[in-house]
Write a structure and sequence with these properties.
The chain has helices spanning 12-23, 39-49, 59-68, 79-86, 105-113, 123-140, 149-158, 183-186, 191-194, 204-212, 214-227, 265-273, 287-290, 304-315, 319-336, 343-354, 363-381, and strands at residues 2-7, 28-35, 53-56, 76-78, 94-97, 117-120, 144-146, 166-173, 234-238, 244-250, 255-259. The protein is α/β, with parallel strands linked by helices and 383 residues long. Bound molecules: magnesium ion.
Length: 383
């Protein structure tokens, strides 16, 4: 029985994780659930999965949920303190982090310190704090199990082979809804345009990041930390069909990749049963129906998100945090209609230029770099 605490239970990955748990209820158990503020959704989840702990990040939502589920006797935690408590409860052995954003960093560190295996669907944790997280995970002997589809594909392709057998990681990208568009065409793109992802059904933040290739940039950094390869050995390929989920080229030239229909339940299930591979009754890949698979070089001149990500990763230290924080703020503003699409890149670039890199930042310095980035951009853009 794997006993799971799920952070981000109402989001896209969170609800699909609960689907996987529902389908494997004799072997997977939800011990804790945490979400931001969707009380009605969490109440339903609590009544179905009977966790022992639940946390609503927003205090008002926690109060509301507490009243609604008072008949269950479950205590509702709240805020960052609540997240830090729920990831370290003795009943859990695995924490699946599916929260979006830098909010995932402290709970992940706390979970590792408490000896929990991590099923990681929160990119920002490794992007900003990979230099803290990976050594800590090794020291505590906990597993870092990737849930992101690409990283799961790489993990499956590696299947235990050590990092020194990797010649190159082949990280695929769908290219998103704006693939093939010119800079001039991107000028007037709206949030509604960017939210139409061709293959994957994801939350709004990740969908915008996918359209701008910022998501792929974050995934390059995540791959670097997870698999211990340097940036020059991570190659991004645009693969519009999203069938090859990523792969590895080994030192003998062999390429092993993982293919499948785009469905997040597979990487979630693989992480939760690792190293075992379990049956799953979902749609099967039909290569005849598909006919062909295509690959292109990413257009990093137009989609500057990827290039800025490599730049920030090469600079290192606190710079990836600034890249990520600037993007988080820019995407929030873009979704509200406050800025134009291409200004997402401008905001990232300006924030990076403004920042003085800190080497080896601790968590406090990471959070300060985030806050400084928000201050700088609010002032500069008057938002
Ligand atoms: Mg991905």
């Amino acid at each position: 029985m794997r006993k799971i605490v799920l952070l981000g239970s109402t989001g896209s990955i969170g609800t699909q994780t609960l689907d996987v748990v529902r389908n494997n209820s004799s072997e997977l158990e939800i011990v804790g659930l945490a979400a931001n503020r969707r009380v009605a959704d969490v109440e339903k989840q609590v009544r179905e999965f009977h966790p022992r702990y639940v946390c609503m990040y927003e205090p008002d939502a926690a109060k509301e949920l507490q009243e609604k589920i008072s008949d269950t006797g479950i205590k509702v935690l709240s805020g960052m303190d609540g997240l830090l408590e729920i990831v370290s409860v003795p009943e859990a052995d695995t924490v699946l982090t599916a929260v979006v954003g830098m909010i995932g960093i402290r709970p992940t560190i706390k979970a590792i310190e408490s000896g929990k295996d991590i099923a990681l669907a929160n990119k920002e944790t490794l992007v900003c704090a990979g230099h803290i997280i990976m050594p800590l995970a090794r020291e505590k002997g906990v597993q870092m199990l990737p849930v992101d589809s690409e990283h799961s594909a790489i993990f499956q392709s590696l299947n235990g082979e050590p990092a020194d057998k990797i010649e190159k990681i082949l990280l695929t990208a769908s290219g998103g809804p704006f693939r093939g568009k010119t800079r001039a065409e991107l000028e007037n793109m709206t949030a509604a345009d960017a939210l139409k992802h061709p293959n994957w059904n994801m939350g709004p933040k990740v969908t915008i990041d996918s359209s701008s290739l910022v998501n792929k940039g974050l995934e390059v950094m995540e791959a670097k930390w997870l698999f211990g390869v340097d940036l020059d050995r991570i190659q991004v390929l645009v693969h519009p069909q999203s069938i090859v989920h990523s792969g590895v080229q080994f030192t003998d030239g062999a390429v092993i990749a993982q293919l499948g229909v785009p469905d997040m339940k597979l990487p979630i299930q693989y992480a939760l049963f690792y190293p075992d591979r379990r049956p799953m009754a979902e749609k099967r890949l039909d290569l005849f129906e598909l006919g062909s698979l295509t690959f292109e070089k990413p257009d990093t001149e137009t989609f500057r998100g990827l290039k800025l990500a490599y730049d920030s990763a090469r600079i290192g230290g606190s710079m990836p945090t600034v890249f990520n924080a600037a993007n988080e703020m820019a995407v929030r503003r873009f979704l509200k209609g406050d800025i134009r699409y291409l200004e997402i890149y401008d905001m990232i670039e300006e924030a990076m230029q403004h920042h003085d890199r800190i080497e080896n930042p601790d968590v406090a310095a990471i959070l300060e770099a985030e806050a400084e980035t928000y201050r700088f951009l609010s002032e500069k853009y008057n938002i």
